[in-house]
């Protein structure tokens, strides 16, 4: 392994380069930007779920103190292009993203119908309450279960027989039905909401009639820049997007949303900068969510534990105006060796806002059903669920019929089983006790595509020996800048302290959105390329100008700690800074692009995780305590064991939420959430989060990219919820197939 590892820097648990800024409050988030003449905008949301705006009385609001404008569909500045939505998925979902104040139609409860702009936030809030809207209400449908018969195959799949959302059959269709040993169960997850700490916010500022600057909470700097340029029909370079710090985002920043357009419209109208911060309640309806999903798994196996067939069906919720889809069934098609696999995916439009990916997106939903079903089947045949998974392990992708680039799932499973103490798991559920508490163990496996996109990085070496790298990626929390500094240090041969990585601005070279667990693979590869290009430039400079280095090429030189030397002539050693100084150069600059090649036609690439949970359940109260979680991942080279570990811990906490506490509840009489703040929508708190131990296989995937990395963000949560649900079954003998597993479901 040592050959591949760049042990000087990559692999170390380096502290975050921006950690001090974050904990001291020096880090500036979008809502914290103050511009001269700032104004404040507050959105008014619809109180009906479907219908039309009949009348809008804004007089009182307009006359309230400090109010500068009240905008709605009849007086809002026209958006000439109106594409909206920096949607990274291809093909894009069928439908039209919601356009702010476009017409009188209401598609969901809470839809923005007006925006009030005032000179202070308080005055804007006050005036927003004075806007009187009357509606012509139509009958709405928001109840998933009652409307499930209206589910259909997504239009994109209907149009294209090769679309991955089409029904998939390997071997014989629904083969489990005729088998001797089989299970067939339904699984449900409710709508979940991202709820990052930082509220979605934007400061919009028209610097000229055709020149827009936004300080915006987004995961996609370039995507947002392109979307606004098209919306407003102005050159891309006239739109500046700044997102230097992002206070958590789990998919809610992968899209541009109506509140951003509302702020930009308002700034145009009042000709002053506008700040708009969503309320926590608005975060439930305006920036996407994990859609409610129904799933059914049928599975058959031989008595000795070979899966013979799986059928996995899923129906996910979407809105009436857009067809949101996700990869709920992907894991089922490739994870286990089964000769017969059938998957069927459908979507159900309701009078709600459009969902979006939420960490681990469809795969986390799908894994809950698949990995619960695995546990159920293992129980039926009386086999240890770890052994059952090992027996159905596959060393080749059965879906694509390709070899894996790398797959160390077995190693991860063994590692985790040891660390959790899997041998303590009782074979008969409900038989292990700790005082009054029932004790159980469960596991769940996760996978997610080891994605990589095209990214560009600029690197400037200064004559003081420091390097500044720039890329328009964001850091939504994983520590992107830190990882990039480590990759640069390694590939340049320079101490991390001498390297600065700047991100979060559209002025920097382009990067994909920070999503799909792809940033380190995409941007890290461009950092690698930029560093190698700098080394080339240094090599050329010394070879051309320094007798001791005559004829030297980069591959013959050693680059170490800011010096380059020629191994054959140890006397020939010079610092990077001196190479520049001797040529009277202030700096040298390179910009390099990196993109995947054709390796994906030859290999199938995934990251893997396995999560083990120990739970304690009180038989009288139904209270569940997660006593321990051990998460192990095969995510290629681990650039920073500390920040990567942080991500895994965060994902595990998200998984505890998914399993035990999170879920929205809607009052279908109004199509409105009753869970609309963090008092009602329960994310796990410290008291809910036990010791979480993280281990990495840490073997590089050099087929994927030159740094050998695979993504972590999604696999951190995928598989956690079923691990906990399976542990609850092991503790109690009760199988809960509808999340979250609240105490009432156990007693
Ligand atoms: Mo993630 S769901 O790609 O933010």
From TrEMBL:
Q: Which domain of life is it from?
A: Bacteria
Domain (Aldehyde oxidase/xanthine dehydrogenase a/b hammerhead) spans 24-139
Q: Which SMART domains match?
A: Ald_Xan_dh_C
In terms of InterPro entries, this protein maps to:
Ald_Oxase/Xan_DH_a/b (IPR000674), Ald_Oxase/Xan_DH_a/b_sf (IPR036856), Ald_Oxase/xanthine_DH-like (IPR016208), AldOxase/xan_DH_MoCoBD1 (IPR008274), AldOxase/xan_DH_MoCoBD2 (IPR046867), AldOxase/xan_DH_Mopterin-bd_sf (IPR037165)
Q: Which Gene3D superfamilies match?
A: Aldehyde oxidase/xanthine dehydrogenase, a/b hammerhead, Aldehyde oxidase/xanthine dehydrogenase, molybdopterin binding domain
GO molecular-function term, one example from the UniProt record:
oxidoreductase activity
Q: PANTHER family, alphabetically?
A: DEHYDROGENASE, XANTHINE DEHYDROGENASE
Q: What is this protein called?
A: Xanthine dehydrogenase family protein molybdopterin-binding subunit
């Amino acid at each position: 392994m040592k050959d591949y590892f760049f042990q000087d820097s990559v692999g170390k648990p380096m502290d975050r380069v921006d950690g001090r800024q974050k904990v001291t409050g020096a880090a500036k988030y979008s809502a914290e930007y103050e511009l001269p003449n700032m104004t404040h905008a507050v959105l008014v949301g619809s109180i009906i779920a479907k219908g039309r705006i009949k009348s809008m009385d804004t007089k009182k609001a307009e006359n309230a103190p400090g109010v500068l404008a009240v905008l709605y569909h009849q007086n809002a500045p026209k958006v000439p292009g109106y594409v909206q939505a920096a949607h990274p998925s291809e093909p894009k979902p069928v439908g039209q993203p919601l356009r702010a104040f476009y017409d009188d139609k209401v598609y969901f409860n809470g839809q923005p119908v007006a925006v009030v702009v005032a000179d202070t936030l308080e005055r804007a809030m006050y005036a927003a309450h004075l806007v009187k809207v009357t509606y012509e209400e139509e009958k709405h449908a928001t109840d998933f279960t009652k409307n499930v018969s209206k589910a259909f195959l997504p239009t994109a799949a209907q149009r294209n027989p090769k679309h991955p959302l089409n029904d998939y059959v390997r071997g014989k269709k629904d083969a489990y039905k005729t088998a001797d040993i089989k299970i067939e169960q339904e699984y449900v997850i409710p709508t979940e909401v991202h709820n990052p700490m930082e509220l979605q916010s934007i400061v919009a500022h028209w610097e000229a009639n055709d020149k827009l600057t936004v300080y915006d909470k987004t995961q996609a700097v370039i995507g947002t820049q392109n979307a606004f340029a098209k919306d407003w029909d102005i050159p891309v370079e006239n739109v500046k997007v700044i997102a230097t710090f992002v206070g958590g985002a789990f998919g809610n920043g992968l899209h541009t949303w109506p509140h951003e357009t509302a702020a930009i419209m308002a700034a145009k109208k009042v000709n002053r900068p506008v700040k708009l911060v969503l309320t926590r309640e608005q975060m439930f309806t305006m920036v996407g969510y994990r859609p409610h999903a129904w799933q059914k798994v049928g599975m058959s196996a031989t008595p000795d534990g070979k899966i013979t067939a799986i059928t996995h069906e899923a129906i996910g919720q979407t809105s009436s105006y857009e067809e949101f889809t996700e990869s709920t069934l992907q894991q089922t098609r490739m994870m286990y060796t089964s000769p017969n696999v059938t998957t069927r995916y459908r979507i159900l439009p309701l009078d709600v806002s459009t969902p979006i990916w939420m960490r681990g997106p469809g795969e986390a939903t799908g894994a809950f059903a698949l990995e619960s079903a695995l546990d159920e089947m293992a129980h039926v045949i009386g086999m240890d669920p770890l052994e059952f998974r090992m027996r159905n392990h596959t060393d080749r992708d059965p879906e694509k019929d390709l070899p894996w680039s790398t797959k160390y799932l077995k190693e991860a499973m063994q590692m985790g089983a040891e660390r959790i103490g899997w041998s303590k798991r009782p074979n008969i559920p409900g038989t292990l006790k700790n005082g009054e508490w029932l004790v159980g163990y469960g596991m769940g496996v996760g996978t997610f595509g080891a994605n990589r996109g095209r990214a560009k990085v600029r690197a400037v070496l200064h004559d003081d020996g420091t390097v500044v790298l720039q890329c328009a990626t964001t850091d939504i929390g994983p520590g992107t800048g830190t990882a990039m500094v480590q990759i640069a240090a390694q590939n340049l041969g320079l101490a991390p302290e001498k390297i600065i990585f700047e991100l979060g601005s559209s002025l920097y070279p382009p990067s994909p959105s920070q999503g799909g667990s792809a940033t380190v693979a995409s941007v890290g590869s461009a950092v690698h390329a930029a560093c190698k290009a700098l080394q080339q430039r240094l090599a050329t400079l010394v070879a051309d100008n320094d007798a001791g280095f005559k004829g030297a090429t980069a591959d013959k030189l050693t680059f170490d700690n800011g010096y380059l030397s020629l191994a054959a002539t140890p006397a020939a050693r010079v610092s990077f800074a001196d190479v520049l100084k001797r040529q009277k150069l202030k700096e040298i600059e390179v910009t390099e692009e990196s993109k995947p090649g054709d390796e994906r036609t030859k290999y199938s690439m995934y990251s893997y995780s396995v999560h083990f949970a120990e739970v304690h359940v009180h038989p009288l109260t139904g209270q569940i305590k997660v006593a321990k979680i051990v998460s192990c991942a095969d995510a290629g080279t681990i650039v920073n064991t500390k920040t990567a570990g942080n991500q895994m811990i965060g994902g595990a906490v998200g998984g505890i939420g998914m399993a035990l506490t999170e879920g929205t509840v809607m009052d279908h009489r109004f199509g409105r959430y009753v869970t609309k703040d963090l008092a009602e929508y329960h994310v796990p708190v410290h008291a809910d989060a036990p010791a979480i131990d993280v281990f990495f296989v840490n073997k590089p995937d050099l087929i994927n990219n030159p740094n050998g990395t695979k993504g972590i963000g999604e696999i951190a949560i995928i598989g956690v919820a079923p691990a906990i649900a399976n542990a609850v079954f092991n503790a109690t003998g009760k199988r809960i197939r509808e999340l979250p597993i609240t105490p009432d479901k156990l007693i």
